[in-house]
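User: Okay, second chain of the day. Same drill as before: sequence in, structure tokens out.
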Amino acid sequence: MKATAQPAAKLRLVLLLFAMISAALLTLSVVTADAHAALWRLDDWGATNVRTDPDTTTLLFSAGIIPLPMAPTTVTPTVDAARYRNPITGGRLDSKTLAGKIRHSGGILLARRNADNTWTSLSLERFTIRIDGTPDLTALVAGTVRVPIATLDLSAARITTVREHGHIYLKIANVGVTLNKTATDAIEATFFGGDDVLPDEVKLGTARVFARTI
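Assistant: Same drill. Structure tokens below.
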């Protein structure tokens, strides 16, 4: 009896271990699938539109600084300011929290014509929206280094999604955009000889994101 009981016990142990491993693998596959399902990948469709603040626009114009669009960014005049359309090139967002990044092409060239007909300019391009605990906007500044140039206020944002033809269309409206000290310091260094003429934070305007998942 002892000789036959031992193999049977071993068989039960093997079967138990096999069941535990199978359950663990099944759980892992479900968790992985849920993680992929919760991640939105954005394609190169749509854009982020920024309507500039009238006071900031007036401030720049009064200093002779013209914010020009860098292709493929486009600009449309509004009643009291301007609207810049920055094409989206991709990104990834959490479908529940929207945490992630949205990348763009194009940019803005701040330019001023000098008395000797030369130009002084500062480029802010290839914007990336970063949504986390402290949302911000980064840019490649003067074609050299990528840094955060603005804070984003999503406290009053309106978020809507629509599923159509295999895609999810995402709109994030009423996002406040405020230039930070890094951006204002760069503007002062470029156009004002480093003089402290701007506040540490300057309201740039209001943004609306319209994106599509792959």
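Confidence is low (pLDDT under 50) at residues 24-36.

User: Thanks, on to the next one.
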